[in-house]
Structures are given as structure tokens and as C-alpha cells.
Design goal:
With 241 residues, the chain is mainly α. The chain has helices spanning 2-28, 35-51, 57-87, 91-99, 109-145, 156-192, 196-216, 218-240. It has one domain (1-240). It is built from eight helices and no strands. The longest helix has 37 residues, at 109-145. The termini are far apart. Keywords: Membrane, Transmembrane, Transmembrane helix. The chain crosses the membrane at residues 6-25, 70-89, 110-132, 183-211.
């Protein structure tokens, strides 16, 4: 009974970490410079620049590259799902492997199946996020193709249209990010196969890793500085006019 109680605590901790971090990151991004907030500003600037270009081969190539990355993860997720589903037929062998590792919790047949079920659910969710991201990039391609040229940069309606394109791209990037987070948290679930305490520690480590990379990494600092440079440049242009 104590072992099952520890498993229950570990699962509660896992979902609290995942859901809690998602809400925390979404709220904090509204008033703190981070990858999501700063990249959105870069996307807006990108779409504004797109308005003045007659030839948009560079945009097409960049968007195609982003879609290829997402397609890779979507197809990889299907392969991972196939592997996890195959393990349902090899539970006894998996139990033997876990039991042979020192300091692991005694494997329980039904609990092993439940853990595999959690992994399956995570990768199904990741697949949905990746495919939704792909579809939204497809929507963005259509909007880019329909965008008229405005070399003056003074058309307010086209600027509003460019902002909507940036929003669609931002939504696609968020779906991609959610899919990647699923991969991160699936790594934490692997620790559960060995011991519930390792599962708890892994969940906390994943949250710490995500926080550092999305809010405190050097990449975030560079992206933030780039955003500030663009802001200063736009302010200088406005002062000249």
C-alpha cells in the first residue's frame, strides 16, 4: 500500500509540474522577456519587412525549413508510439529487465501497463501538437502568398494584416513548443519505471531545465538584445519623421 501511495504522489507531482509550468510560463511571458515573448516581436518585424519585398523566396525557404523540423518530430513521434505500443506485448520481459537493475522498485504487472499507457498518452498529445503546428504553418504560407507588396510601408491595413500573419506563426510555434515539452516530460516518465522517487526528481529536473532554457539561457539574452535593438531603431526612425 505504501508503494502505491508513493506512486500516486509521484504521478500527482508529475502532472502538477507539467500543468503548473505551462500556466506559469504563459503568465510570465506576458510581462517578462523570454523566448516566446521576444520571438513574437521578431516575427512581427519579419512580417512587416515581408510587405516591402516583391520576391519572397527567402521567406518561402525559411518557412519550409521550419515545417521540415516539425515534420521530422511528427514522424518520429509515430515511430516512438509504435515502439511503446509494442512494449505492451513484452511486459513480462520488461519486468525482468527492471527487476535485474539494483535499487529499483519491485515491478508490478498492472502498474507497468499503466506507465506505458501514460507514455502512449504523452506521445499522442505530442503528435497532435506537431501536426497542428504543421497545419498552421500551411495557413501562414497561404497568407504570405496572398500578401500584396507595399514598398512605402505606410499602408495601415497591410500592417494590420502583417500582424495577423505574425500571430498565426506565433500560434504555430507555440504548438511546436508544446510538442517538444511532451518529449521533455516523457523523459521524466522513464524514471518512473525504476523508482517513484526518481520519477519525482526527474519531473522537477525537467521543469528546472525548461525554465532555464526559456527564461535564463544565453540564447534568450541574445534574442532579447536583438529585440531591443530593433525597438531603438524604430524609435529613431520615428523621431526622424
Amino acid at each position: 500500500m505504501n508503494n502505491y501511495l508513493l506512486d500516486l504522489i509521484a504521478v500527482t507531482c508529475f502532472f502538477s509540474c507539467w500543468i503548473g509550468y505551462a500556466r506559469f510560463a504563459r503568465k510570465k511571458a506576458k510581462n517578462t522577456n523570454c523566448i516566446a515573448r521576444c520571438l513574437h516581436q521578431h516575427r512581427i518585424h519579419w512580417m512587416y519587412q515581408l510587405l516591402g519585398r516583391e520576391v519572397r523566396v527567402a521567406e518561402a525557404a525559411l518557412l519550409a525549413n521550419l515545417e521540415r523540423n516539425i515534420t521530422f518530430f511528427a514522424s518520429t513521434t509515430m515511430l516512438v508510439l509504435a515502439g511503446v505500443l509494442t512494449l505492451f506485448a513484452q511486459v513480462e520481459r520488461l519486468e525482468a529487465v527492471i527487476a535485474s537493475i539494483p535499487m529499483t522498485a519491485p515491478p508490478v504487472h498492472m502498474l507497468i501497463q499503466f506507465k506505458l499507457g501514460i507514455l502512449t498518452l504523452i506521445f499522442v498529445m505530442a503528435f497532435f501538437q506537431f501536426t497542428w503546428s504543421m497545419r498552421q504553418y500551411g495557413f501562414l504560407n497561404v497568407m504570405v502568398g496572398a500578401t500584396p507588396v507595399d514598398k512605402s510601408g505606410q499602408d495601415a491595413q497591410l500592417k494590420a494584416y502583417a500582424l495577423q500573419m505574425a500571430i498565426v506563426q506565433d500560434r504555430a510555434a507555440h504548438a511546436y513548443n508544446y510538442g517538444l515539452r511532451s518529449y521533455y516530460f516523457s523523459m521524466a516518465v522513464l524514471g518512473w519505471f525504476f523508482h517513484p522517487l526518481l520519477f519525482i526528481v526527474s519531473s522537477l529536473v525537467v521543469v528546472y531545465t525548461l525554465y532555464r532554457r526559456e527564461f535564463k539561457s544565453r540564447a534568450v539574452q541574445a534574442i532579447t538584445q536583438g529585440m531591443l535593438i530593433f525597438d531603438e531603431r524604430e524609435q529613431a526612425k520615428g523621431a526622424e519623421h
